[in-house]
Structures
1.
Amino acid sequence: MYDIIYIGKNTDQQYLDLKLKYPTAKFSEDVSSAKKKCFTKMFWVVWPDINVCDNFKFDYSADEWSQEYIHTFLNGDTYDGIILVPKRAQIAERELRHRFFVNKKEVDIVASTPKPFDLYYVDTWEDYEHALENSSTEMFWAVSHNLKYSMSYINSFYFSHHNSYDRKENHAFVHDVDERKLYNGVFLCSRNKPLNKKQIDYRFLVNAKQWDDVVSGSRNYEIYVINNYQEYLDVMEHCPTEMFWMIPPHVSVRDNFEFDLYFSHDNEYDRKINHVFKNGDYYDGVVLCSKHAPISEREFKYRFITNKKEHEVVASDPLKYDKIVVNTYEEFCELQKTVSTDFFYVIPSDVDVDWDFDYQIPYYERDNIHVFKNGEYYDGVFLIHKENLLAQREFDYRFFRNKKEIDILASAPKPYDKIYVDNYDDLIMQLSTVKSNFVWIIPNDVDIDWNFDYHIPYYERDNIHVFKNGNFHDGVFLIHKDKPLAQREFDYRFFVNKKEIDITVSTPKLYDIVFISYNEPNADDNYTMLTQRFPRAKRIHGVKGIHQAHIEAARLCDTNMFWVVDGDAHVLDDFTFEHQVPKWQRDQVFVWRSRNPINDLEYGYGGIKLFPVKETLNMDITKTDMTTSISSKFNAMRTVSNITSFNTDEFSTWKSAFRECCKLASKTIRGQVDNETDERLEQWCETGQDALYGKYAIQGACAGRAFGYDNRNSPDILNLINDFDWLYEQFSKHTI
């Protein structure tokens, strides 16, 4: 068996494989050196650019007559492969270079096949330099990650060493893109004719041999679902193609979208820009990214790419956003951690929703909270990004710093609970039981004629909305259940943070009317006339003592104030008992004027009065003037309410004049004006002589004036004027 010499390096895989099968095989850098290593009269030469056929055993033996010839064996279909060389043969360098020998014998045995030319991905000048330096074959294929090429064609394409012309030229093959025949795809490059950087950058070979064979075409770019910016950077670094598809995680790609967009190397504009496609209504979904146009972290975060080209193609739709129903800020914070979509709806538990949630928020507005109409206001359903931080105050007041109001009616507020209350303690107790966030407070002293169709904007949760109760805003009010309310605010219906709503929702219940009589001769007639007009009137009769009679009258009442009509009062036809006292004045006394039938005076004496029940029950019975002892807050009303018909008999006339003039003279009536008092005293004592029982009125007035002057500093003695028995004794002594 002849020696086998491998022309190449002892590290070449082909030599190692050969050595494994033929342990005596040697290597040499060239044929000349190989002769020195050979111990047989002929030796085999195995080139590094061929593949030895498995069925070739190097067992060929040359005929004696042909041992002076170089035996060439088929390398595929040409004789440029393995040779059997006589040790004494003289071979020219040119013969070796072209593997075309003068003194030869062609042996019709396929001993090898051409080793395919090396293949390199050449997308940059650096890639080309690397291939040029490291290729083990005289020619090498330059392909690109950005195209789809035919490997079968590449493996079968070969120039024999006899074809020195083609081996020294660069070759370009057809790159078919949308039926355009381009020559910027696959190249077969010769190490004998290096290219320059410009040719590589533009992928345009000068003086290259162009072939009509289609070797490459469009390729589908890689597709990645990218969740965050770091993943985007990783893909930018490791993706083999210059462009790649980026799909956000929370979109649904449409079935008819093909991902077949491709740009050949000559289309520099489209290759070096990002391409964005519609995601429903907006361009914030699928992107064909270019490595030449990196996306910043901010652009990625907001899906708003600056260097982009927009395509009017809907490639995807946003996934339906998650929905959470919450009542408190704590619930919101916990549930925000569990949502699976980038955006999610927050539905307050106090709204009713009748909407399909068919709304898309553009991703570049991720910092904005989109709020939808809840009845009249934007304080119901809102749409928020899962990474958007929300302060408790924003949530509690449903008033957001970064918001966008969407004019879509998504919900309506649930009806507010109603509670009916008598007092502050009752209010506090019932507030703990309500389920709605806002609650109607309805005092039991009002009559309602309204449907409670009112919606308070949530950002006014600290304001108490108070509605008109007849003439004043002191009846029904609307309050947030967590709003602290002081007892004084409730009692006086005068709130610190309030908003008065000019809607009359209630009227105060009419105050009770109590007719107080003792032994007035005309009392029955006056009461009958009163009840004919005002059937709700009640009566107290025969209670001894002015103070005691009024206390008993207060005990009859169901309302917090009550009207007092004296037994000798004849109510005028135009007086209606409809005066409304605002809540903050319901500890005050109101006295209307009365007309004196004897001297024609018109002031509070004998007039109809409106008293607070609580204060009347707790009045100071030691005070001479009962009216001003009930409350220090006295209101003299200008309207004449009645005629005080006290002149029904001699004693009644005298008694009434005595009592009134005693109080005037002793100045026991709180708040009286001295000039007015003196004028009234003078008229009592001097006017009305000719009127019915007029002289008894004047006599009683004069006697009362004197008694008042004499005892003005003796309240215990002055208090005798409320004792009707004592008064009768005085009447007997002083009348003629």
Note: The CA atoms of residues 541 and 720 lie 21 Å apart.
2.
Amino acid sequence: MAGENEATPQSQQTKQLEYRNPRRPTNARTPRVWPAIVIVALLWGIRLYALVVPMTTFSHFMSTFMSLLVAMALFLAWWLISRRTSIKERLLALAAVVALCFAAQATADPLMRGMMWLILAMPFVLTVWAIWWWVARHRSPMFRTGGLIAIVALTCGTFELFKMSGLDGEQHADLRWRWGPPTERIWIAGYKKTSLGQSALINASNVGPVVLRPDDWPCFRGPLRDATVRGLQIATDWSAHPPKKLWQQQAGPGWSSPIVVGGRLITHEQQGGSEVVVCREAATGNVIWICEDSGRFEESMAGPGPRATPTFFNGKIYSLGATGILNCLDATNGSRIWTKNIAMDSGIAPPMWGFASSPLVQNGVVIVYVGGTKGLLAYQADSGKLAWNIVSGTQCYTSAQPAVLNGQEQVLFLSDAGLIGVEPVGGKVLWTHDLLSNGLPRSIQPHVISPTQVLISSETDLGTAEIDVAQNNNAWSAKQAWVSRQLKPSFDDYVIQGGYAYGFDGAVFSCIDIRDGKRMWRGGHYGHGQVVLLADQKLLLVIGEEGQAILVRATPKASEELAQFQAIAGKTWNHPAIAGGKLYVRNGQEVAAFELPR
């Protein structure tokens, strides 16, 4: 009897313990969670660092993506070797989380799937995973695993509620309510209402033929494709004499730039399932004609729309869409003269960010870049017949650049393979400077700085370098004189004034000496924008990433901002145009015209 009485309290105590934790062994140890907390903290620390420290676009992307991959690998290693939980619990939870993530990204908004979903959602998945495991570390395996599945499902489901409208230059996502009205549809509706109204298009025959004027802006980055305005002087006190808005119209998405010829403004836009060349009156913004091509290109980083700027030459408009449609249009009424599809002609699919080569018309041919095994393509400007093609790298987002070196007219082209000089009529390669980028994209135009010198730039692998080009009889040679990491433009081109280059080093406006690449100053924080040089006054007109127009003095002494005003709203990557003393700016939402003060 005594033995039974002595055993009773111990039996009751054991039963009480079993009742309190019916699914947890009495000898179970608390899971070690601190490694996961450290991993998540480091991941968010790197992202915070990228927010406050200026970086190039590519550096932002690489720091964001690579830090995520490393964090995921370390997190997985911690989870699999965590012996304080059973292998069954670890594998079950891991399988459930992976299945939820795959299902969520497969049903997310199309532009948020794949790699973009990982970049946006996975940091939050890892964070809630670590926090929950710390909160529930003393609970039973069933409670911990069930709760983890529920909280990860809730996190993944949250990202199902949003759609993405691309990234800015610092790789920040523009997230919007998924079931709200499509932004592009709103823009198109507004465009049709404000531009077309209740009436038909302006009768092109009443406007007259299009003739190039001396101060027009007929192609990518202006008459000489160097973003320089000559013969114009403006007032610099914008407080007393601000630029006057002439008109503002909504426009479809696209990153091509406007051109201005003969009193007309030409843009290339996306409107639903069509790439559209739009001709407006430069003075009023009223639409004169439109030309539509069925096709749509879009990707998660930059969104939809054409990338290449149209070109005016000899009464014709040459335009290249992101899907590869190359048009020759009558500038008077927009009628087609000929059409080619460079993707079909070459067998090359559109690259990651679409075809972006602004057509160059030179010596009777129109030159565009297709990449792959074909490189540069030249078509007869009048007929559209293929004239020649040369292999010149497999991928890039630059355009052919006209130049005269050592007294000979030629076309320069910078690709992932390097820089080449080409004779435009027959496509003969005059010289090459091999400079592999190992598959990294290049998107900055070569800049001729003397009859024998060219500047080339690439954010991803080079910075800025000067190439000396020499000719001895019929033999050409090219060698690198210097290279500098003091100016690393991504897709923001620069200008040359008085022996100095002015442009964006990442997201910060900067100045370098073109004799050696030495930085003179770095100080204008305008995001990822574009710049035009007003050569007569040594002024820089910068269009910031948020649509602000900034007037800066072109001096190597220091960053000297003179004036600023808000031109348009929203992300603005497009190059501006200046013609007849007027400034024209556009982005993926609107286009506007301003009279610059005299």
Note: Residues 1-27, 194-200 have pLDDT under 50 and may be disordered.
3.
Amino acid sequence: MMRKTAAVALCVLLTLAGTPALRAGGRLEQIDITGFVPSPTAGHLVAKIVGIQWDARTIPVRYSMNTTLNPIPNPLGPAFLSMDAARAALQASFDQWNQIPTSYIDMQITGTTNNVGLAGFDMINELSFRTAAAFNAIAVSPSTSLILDMTLVNGDDIDEDGDSDVSSAITSAADVDGDGDIEFPPGLYKAGTILDNDVQFNTKVSNGLRFTVADADVDVVGRSVDLMCVAVHEFGHSLGLSHTMNNQKSGSDGNGATMFPFIDTGDPAAELGGRSLDIDDIAWSAFVYPEGSAASGVAALQPGDTAFGAEFGLIKGSVRHGLLNQPISAASVLANVHNTGAASVSAYSGTTQVSFNPATGGLSVISAAFNILNGDYTIPVPKGTYEVSVEPIDGFPAAAGNISLAAQIGVVLGQHNFNEEFWSKNQEGVPERRPGDEKTVSVNPGQTRSGIDIVTNDSTLNINNFRARAASGFISPPAGANFTYALRVPASQIGGINPAGEILVTAASFDTNVVDSSVSPRFADAILTTGTVNPDGSINTIALDAPLAHASGFLAQENDFSPFYFQDPKELGQIVRQGVADGSIQNLFLVLRVGPAPYPGVSGQPPLVGFSTATPILGFSYLSLDGGLTFTRQTTRDFRFSLLVSKPGQ
């Protein structure tokens, strides 16, 4: 007698194509309604947010290739990619994850299917080049998982197709009856357990891509992409990893972690870089599937394995919103390698829950007190010394919808409106005099460093003479041109800040970007200086040779606001306050100088700045083509540069 179950739900994440100008951090999520606890909303249940993953009894995870499209369709011309070549590339992509010595995940292509429709929940893990007519991303990796702890018994029909999906004849998942779908062994399975995963690649003529596998075929065509680059990313979702905000490894490598949500299909170096895993991806796979965590079975150490604790330690702490005095849901916390600034491993903060309507399946956000249980985070890192920083999920470089349900909770509650900053130990929890200062955290394998608690600065005012970003520019400068961007902050905007006390001029923040995502945006100079303007708003003088603050070779961030932290905010605040009071400072100018060509990357384009075009134009932005000798006031755009000013703490 078969027993039907309905305690399953779908979890979906897409891989999106980036435009040429655009380019794991944790777990994919599911709700857990175990216990059926009533929520504050009548008729609703408390639904905890939990990570999804494969149960050890279901590993190796077996996949079937859909062979009904052979050769693989090419929306740009004649088909050329055989099913055998595609299968080899997909298994090589699985093997990037399988070969992590500290992770016991194992995903194998073991069969075929001839499904002429779309993949769906059928206990067959399908790899398919068929997608729905309305589908418009590069690929998708939806998983179906349990929404409550459940004991499966022999004969259970999980997908309700009339065929048993649980067999007492096995102790690990297998196709017992030879009909193509996978049966699970009986036993208790936790909420979040993955039951089925299907990965689909878009090849439609309307909006699909040409998938290539050879190095020589990787090109700058936006609708052509390396199959392995896409598949390695999607298979990260297959094992349960979420997107990360980590899109720039270092000053010399603009590529991000594999699990960053966008792929630059016009940058061959970015596509080839996406074939292999970053330490962020490796650390999270090992954290979710830690080798050596069991005495027997797939999690036990086998020849060639390395125990998780022999390679990784943990950084633990919490993140709190200084102004709202609330734990933050899904702040992005990053461990940067000390002295190099290279990004290592990231995580998201917070333990969260939602109110679940069992009648409709709807999820509700009620309040920070209900939805956010704490702001805790854990970052698995290899041995090293790190600087820990936090940034909001504010749309740059990715939006909450690209990340997780927890991120959307934080955004709905208005928590992601803070400036990124470093953990500064004793300065946390008070208005920080130097938000750019950082304390280091040293971690050894098997060690947990706790108490790395971050409280966002509660006294900072961003002076923003711009609106929402409309675009990034500029590309293709005239021969010999040297772009220099400047934004004016009139003294009147500073004088009203804490007029009875001191001010700290802490940082400038520049909205920056690149054309090729494998390139890190680096500007020749970042400058804070003074100047005067004429009655018509044009620049009269700008003291580029006598700056108040200056950084040469300024390393910016891709598709994000890039902070330029000033060395002595208190002294700088005193200089500015006195200058405004006695009239010697009429304006401050935030300046980015690009530097002359040539520029790195396949496109050979300079680093970019973000700008707004909403009217009326505010008129505080200026552009120079000669390195800052002459500036033209911008009448159709406002550069997105901010000056950060705060009141000093005690």
Note: Residues 83-98 form the longest helix (16 residues).
4.
Amino acid sequence: MAHFYRSPLRDQDFLMPVNMADWLEEGHLAYFLIEVVGRLDLATLHARHPNDGVGRPAYDPAMMLTLLVYAYCGGVRSSRRIEASCRTDAAYRVICGGMVPDHSTIARFIVDHQGAMGGLFVSGLRLCAAAGLVDLSVLALDGTKIGSDAALDRNRDAEWIAARVAEALAAIVASEDTEAASPLFAGPRAELATRRGRLALYESALAVIAAEEAAAQAEAAGRADAAHAAAKEGRKLRGRKPKDPAAALERAKADYEVAKARAEERAATRAALEADARSSGRNLGGFLPGPDTKLAKASEALAAARATAEAAEPPARRTANITDPESRIMKTKDGFLQGYNAQAVVARNGVVVASTVSQDANDVELFVPMLAQVGRTLKAAGIEEVANLILADAGYWSAANATAEGPPRLIATVKDYKQRQAAREAGTTSGEPPKDASALEAMEHRLRTQEGAALYALRSSIVEPLFGDHKENQGWRRFRRRGLVAAEAEWSFMNLVQNLGKLFDHRGALAVPPTR
């Protein structure tokens, strides 16, 4: 029995439309991005290509940027895969007009224009605001750990790195440094391709270790000075005792000085009373003072702290990553990774209004800087509206963050599941917090009100989808290039792509139909 199929006619002439503009349907994402990128402020990109007629003309920066945005929208970040798609994918070919930029050209474009990514993000946010997509009624702040282009097992101590520095210097001297900069070494791993590049990385890693050691020593000295200064004033420092044995020993010494001074003061007072009694010919009443128990306890604590410090093993050597010295070891729910802490502030409808990348693994110190970043970004985008409320999880909780200047905020004081459990046990409340409530008590009161609980419940649905899309849908679990500046640039570009995607979803709000 014969079969009847619709078979491809591969030898047919003009299988594709003659006009490239007809290759894609109306309203395709590629046509939308071509138009929208043309509305961004690209002055910084054009500034790198003066019209002096020297050399081969560069690719149009607007075309290159559109190409990258479209590739990122599809989760494609490899410059080689982008080049291959320019040969085979109709949408890529429409964007490039049939031209095929080399993968090295694409990679160099990313490197050359990394400083412009922050401005492009602001320009994209301005477009979102013009389309009415920036809803500042509720903002949510959160961070996620994103890996660097470096392995966790490439962390080395100062001794190992110093030996490699000596070897690299000897090799450079022996070879008279015949290695020259070459286009072959361009790309994200160019710094590892030459001896001088590797030497620079080793020296950067040593500088990181030296800076961390100096900061730790300064912090320890500051704590010890504060404890001894308090001891001179006859008072003890309050707060949790330090865990480090050396720091705990200094604290115990200061506490012993206070106890000793107070014991001597009490003994002097007793002696003065006894002398006055003898001179007046009377007996001093009361019981004879026994051993000073407070001084004895302080002495025992000092002896124990000294024994602990002497028995303690030497502190672990500080290390730095020799592939990406600016990255840090970050703790996640799945273990540790070598990378950065990527922060984002997201509006209620999913538009990112501020972002940054930090080396600090903890979020608590990033709350106030992110508030300032929101203000700067909104001002640069020409958005005069101010945020009504900002939400943050327990990682940002501190009394200082709760009372810092800025918009009203709800910051969880404990993890979300504990917050819900405490709310069930304590029940709901209403009204404003008591006037004498501490920052912690006031925040917990607001979170237990029906309005506060309902508003805080919005946090996860506002900010978590951003990280879920970046990591799960797009596969952006590590940055493509090394260094804090490069990571910051790519994070800004990722969030620019996110915002342009929101524009595409709401393209009916644009003044001009985003077709072709």
Note: The chain has 18 helices and eight strands.
